[in-house]
Specification:
heterotrimer, A mainly alpha (214), B mainly alpha (220), C alpha/beta (258), B: 220 residues, mainly alpha, C: 258 residues, alpha/beta, 6-stranded mixed β-sheet, 4-stranded antiparallel β-sheet, 9 helices, 26% strand
């Protein structure tokens, strides 16, 4: 049995890399979009707030897979060429962005009003209030929820296998199909996903401890 | 320019409607079974002996960190390879989704159990109720009341997760979209309609839940 | 002009929806004057204070601090809201101490006091540290420079908050029920810092329930009820010879509680 695992290791390894790569890309892109979105929700004009609200609420009602398919099949129909992996990343990044926007908004909104008042009272202008008082405190509240988002993304990344991207899930399927060793290889895949997400959670808890104050 | 042609989608609307109904049914069943699993796991973690606490915690931690798709594949492809071929694709999915939901619900129920005031349980024990009776008549009802909003949100989540069932050809809404697309290539129209259907259904469920919550709170 | 009041409120009107929080309030505060503002809850005392440094907006009237209008410029008969930077500049000249202290939890005591000095007054790091240290010593917390708010008692936190506000060398200090959230045994240390400030000639507006402090330290006591100033005068007159029925009732309730 060990030699089976060893023989399949390259395929599993490549799949794992794809999963990690897709997850990382989505997390980075989505967090940037989400940060902008969150700031718009908090401080933007009426129109901007409205627009971001619609974006966040709309995405909340659609399954991830539907958007992945819509982009993967839809873009070529509109004349835009998009690889499967790119389609998956774009779709998942949109979801990540919506999530993160809410997390950012929630983190800042949970800071007591008095903090902004005190910062304003000593004469700090808006940008300095954000920089010195609000955002440093928001980070500690933002991190746990953001790590949860990261874990969800790693899990959602498995959906790209349904547009034929060979990630960890697809690789596992192929190997099980060939070797019939279901328990072994589904077990390995589960362990790998678990390892990734569990380490993310641990890192998150460490970060949270570093950034939270009395 | 892309030429819009909505006819093929609306000609096949029956397919989509049936898929939507199936999705709701699957989500409901998975929620029900998941509640049983989750309740059991939650009780194990709060009141159970050491080994039960460990097993329940392991289940919850493992399932919450792996993709639903992996669980689906294991149940549908893996179990038969191990000699267990009881389930067709629909029931395989329901089981997989229930196991997935159970892990999440276990945490919801655990918080609920711990939130039920110690005082109320002590009062019940003082009246002479056995542990089981206390669980049945005091802990569980109170805990459900606390957990109700989370249960509602879980149902919406599960309904969205039913889209993954299309991977094993369960004829729910997303699978319907795939089929119409394959036959008519009206990609934009299909996914716009299907997206709108999911959105509308999710919002309808949320609105219904909020009404129910409000009414229940009035009864308090 | 030496005679012009430092602060002047003219016809200040603030509404919140249908409710009139402030009903055309007029008030003048001279330089160096300590004014205590008393009254039942909901009388608008806190809102009045918060309007002065424009933490609250108002619908009608003007507020002048050293002749400059707060929050709005006046252009050709209409009022135009000032730019954010302008408002911030004016706020730096009024120091505010809050009921809930509002210290920045991610900075130690020294950091809390230094922030305004470096970011608003533009002081260099070394000068700011010196200045902040001096003020923290002045309020009796020289040994707590690197303590975080979570490590300080309520009274100590409020004293840091006072140092934070005063270090900016404001023209006026605004105290919004500075001792109401403190345990009784910690109230004294804060009141004594406030009295010390008053003696040094700082212009102060103090919203308070501490009547003994008002009597001993204030030059003038203002009684507010339901958004308007009902009566005002020297402490002896207001406390010992109240003219209005509402003030009598208010004081009567207080002495009945003792």
């Amino acid at each position: 049995m060990i030699d089976l695992v060893v023989a399949s290791a390259p395929l599993i390894g490549r799949g794992l890399l794809v999963t990690l790569g897709v997850s990382l890309a989505v997390l980075v892109l989505g967090s940037l979009v989400g940060l902008a979105g969150g700031l718009c929700l908090l401080y933007g004009s009426r129109a901007l707030q409205w627009g971001v609200r619609i974006y966040v609420d709309a995405l909340r009602g659609i399954p991830h897979l539907v958007l992945i398919f819509a982009i993967f099949y839809g873009f070529p129909a509109l004349g835009l060429q998009l690889s499967a992996i790119a389609a998956g990343i774009v779709a998942l990044s949109l979801f990540c962005g919506a999530h993160v926007a809410e997390v950012v908004r929630g983190a800042v909104a949970s800071i007591p009003r008095g903090q902004a008042d005190a910062a304003a009272a000593i004469g700090l202008a808006f940008r300095d209030r954000l920089r010195h008082v609000i955002l440093p405190q928001a980070v500690g509240r933002f991190l746990p929820a953001w790590v949860n988002t990261a874990v969800e993304i790693v899990k959602s990344s498995s959906l790209v296998s349904l547009v034929s991207v060979v990630d960890l899930t697809m690789a596992t399927q192929q190997i099980v199909g060939r070797t019939r060793e279901a328990l072994l290889f589904y077990g390995v895949a589960a362990l790998l996903y678990f390892a990734i997400n569990f380490s993310l959670s641990l890192m998150g808890r460490q970060l949270e401890r570093r950034y939270s104050h009395g | 320019m892309y030429q819009f042609n909505w006819r093929p989608v609306f000609d096949n609307f029956g397919l989509l409607a049936k898929g939507l109904a199936l999705g709701l049914g699957i989500a409901l069943l998975a929620l029900a079974i998941g509640c049983v699993i989750g309740l059991a796991a939650a009780f194990c973690r709060v009141h159970g002996p050491r080994w039960a606490r460990f097993v329940a915690a392991a289940y919850v931690e493992l399932v919450r960190n792996i993709p639903l798709l992996l669980i689906i594949y294991f149940v549908y492809f893996g179990l038969p390879l191990l000699g267990v071929s009881l389930f067709d694709n629909i029931w395989s999915f329901i089981l997989a989704l229930a196991v997935y939901a159970g892990a999440y619900l276990a945490e919801v129920f655990r918080a609920g159990i711990e939130a039920v005031g110690k005082g109320q349980i002590e009062a019940a024990r003082a009246l002479g109720l056995t542990r089981l009776r206390v669980a049945r008549r005091v802990t569980i009802p109170l805990m459900f009341r606390i957990a109700l909003p989370a249960l509602g949100n879980t149902f919406v989540s599960l309904f969205k997760d039913t889209s993954v069932a299309s991977a094993i050809a369960v004829p729910e809404l997303t699978y319907g979209a795939i089929r119409i697309n394959v036959n008519t290539w009206r990609v934009i129209e299909v996914y716009l309609v299907v997206g709108a259907l999911y959105l509308a259904t999710c919002y309808a469920i949320v609105a219904l839940l909020r009404q129910t919550e409000r009414r229940l709170r009035g009864i308090h | 002009m030496a005679d012009a009041p430092l602060i002047a409120l003219q016809g200040l009107e603030k509404r919140f929806g249908e409710a009139r929080i402030l009903r055309g309030v007029d008030l003048e505060v001279a330089r160096g004057e300590v004014v205590a503002i008393i009254g039942p809850s909901g009388s608008g005392k806190t809102t009045l204070l918060r309007c002065i440094n424009f933490l609250e907006d108002f619908q009608q009237g003007r507020i002048l601090v050293e002749g400059e209008t707060v929050g709005y410029r006046e252009e050709g008969g209409r009022r135009v809201k000032r730019a954010d930077a302008d408002i911030a500049r004016m706020r730096a000249h009024a120091g505010m101490v809050f009921q809930s202290f509002n210290l920045f939890p991610h900075m130690d005591a020294l950091g809390n006091v230094r922030l305004g000095l470096t970011e608003v007054r533009g002081m260099k790091q070394a000068a700011a540290r010196e200045h902040a240290t001096a003020w923290l010593e002045r309020v009796g917390l020289g040994g707590k420079l690197s303590a975080y708010p979570s490590q300080l008692s309520g009274g100590q936190q409020q004293r840091v908050a006072i140092a934070r506000a005063v270090a900016m060398e404001p023209k006026v200090m605004l105290f919004d029920e500075a001792t109401s959230a403190l345990d009784p045994e910690l109230v004294g240390e804060v009141l004594s810092v406030m009295a010390d400030l008053a003696r040094s000639g700082m212009t102060m507006l103090v919203v308070t329930h501490e009547m003994r402090f008002a009597r001993e330290v204030a030059h003038r006591v203002v009684f507010m009820d339901q958004g308007a100033i009902v009566e005002q005068g020297p402490p002896a007159q207001v406390f010992d010879d109240p003219r209005s029925e509402r003030l009598r009732q208010f004081l009567g309730h207080l002495s009945a509680r003792l």
